[in-house]
Amino acid sequence: MIDFRYHVVSIVAVFLALTVGLVIGSSYLSKVAYDELNNQLSSLRSQNQALHGTQNELDAQVRDRDSLIAALGPDAVAGKLSGHAVAVVMLPGADGSAGDALSDLLGKAGAVVTDEVTLKSGLLDPSQAGKLAAAGAKVPAAERGGAQLPSPSSSSSSPTPFPVIALADIAGAVVHRIPATTSGVGEQKITDQASQDVLTAYSDAGFLEVKAAGTTSADLVVVLAPPAPSSGSAANDAADTLYLGFLKDLTGGGRSLGAVLAGPASSAASPGLLAAALKDGWVSKNVSTADSADQPSGRIITVFALAEAASGKTGHYGLTGTADGPLPDLR
Fold first, then answer.
1. What is the pLDDT of residue 12?
2. Domain 78-317, CATH among 3.30.1330, 1.10.10, 3.40.50, 2.60.290
3. Residue 57, exposed/middle/buried by CB under 10 A (0-12, 13-18, 19+)?
4. Could you tell me whether strands 177-178 and 188-189 are parallel, antiparallel, or unpaired per DSSP bridges?
5. Is the pLDDT of residue 30 over 90?
6. Distance from C-alpha of 159 to C-alpha of 148, rounded to nearest angstrom
7. 304: closest CA among 111, 115, 118, 175?
8. Which helix (DSSP H) or strand (DSSP E) does residue 225 occupy?
9. DSSP code for 2
């Protein structure tokens, strides 16, 4: 007869066997799992090193390509802008070094660079409205493009904002021409001294910087856009509206032969300014665009777009898949 102690011993023996099996099995499986994970880690490390090597090779190729394009740039654009005077305007946040490089290439293309003007962010600051108005008021109305616009007033239901007036003043000073009438149409030439007076008034107030001011009237204008913000906002939309109006002040009514809005590749995608320009009916038909202008290739594209604008044509060019291709055909 099997007694109770036999059952107890049997049960204990079973659980002991299970415990020993689990310990031995888990130890073996842990080592197998560890070896497998270690092998995967080593493989991923090797792949990562290979990718880094490939990236370094691609970076070197891009640098060499840009160096080659930069070296060939002067020959590529030689004579394209002979007989033309070009003003360079940099919007707040635009790359100053890109502006300097572009100005240099414009000279190699045969153009006379009349002005290099950098606009400051204070132009868009509502708290600076009074100071902005005071700066413009120092210049006679007959010399100001903004004086041809309705003045802001508390009694007006739709007053013209002071930044709009200031940008119209600056546009007139850049091309030495302002609207012919208070309806903002047509054009009338202002004197070289009047142009300098306007730029000096806003420069002294801290709203712009003039690196090179010439006495020659610009017949073409390049406006350099900043990189696109990381996300859209009401403030960005308001700034874009002001900048698009500035482009209209530069080119509307025959006040210049044409303008090119140039910027880095990011500006060609929403919420960038070049993308906004393409969505604006008037600007897209009357102002050319060129992306990648912070790169040697983009600066060559900008010069070609200016040459096309001088012949009365408008196009949208660059390396980000813009509608009209990478480069205008000047043949």
1. 61
2. 3.40.50
3. exposed
4. antiparallel
5. no
6. 13
7. 111
8. none
9. -
Q: Exposure pattern of 139-171 as b/e (b: 16+ CB <10 Å)?
A: beeebbbbbbbeeeeeeeeeeebbbbbbbbbbb
Residue of 268, 290, 264 whose CA lies nearest to 279: 268
What are the residues facing 117 on neighbouring strands?
89, 210
Weakest mean pLDDT among 49-58, 150-159, 213-222: 150-159
For residue 260, list its beta bridge partners: 222, 288
Contact criterion met (CB below 8 Å) for 247 and 259:
yes
* Tokens describing residue 44: 């991923």
Rounded Cα gap, residues 98 and 77, in angstroms = 17
Average pLDDT over residues 46-69: 77
Question: E strands of the chain, at which residues?
Answer: 85-90, 112-119, 177-178, 188-189, 208-213, 220-224, 258-262, 288-290, 316-317
**Domain spans of the chain, in order of start:** 1-77, 78-317
Please give the pLDDT value at position 154: 46
Rounded to two decimals, what is the model's pTM? Answer: 0.80
CB count, 10 Å around CB of 41? 10
Per-residue pLDDT tens for 233-283? Answer: 999 999 999 999 999 999 987 788 999 999 999 999 999 999 999 999 999
Give the pLDDT score at 169: 93
- Mean pLDDT on 290-316: 95
pLDDT at 152 over 60: no
What's the token pair of residue 141? 């109305």
In degrees to the nearest 10, what's the CA dihedral of 305, 310, 313, 314? 40
Strand partners, 180: none
Q: Name the residue among 301, 295, 224, 237 with its Cα closest to residue 270.
A: 237
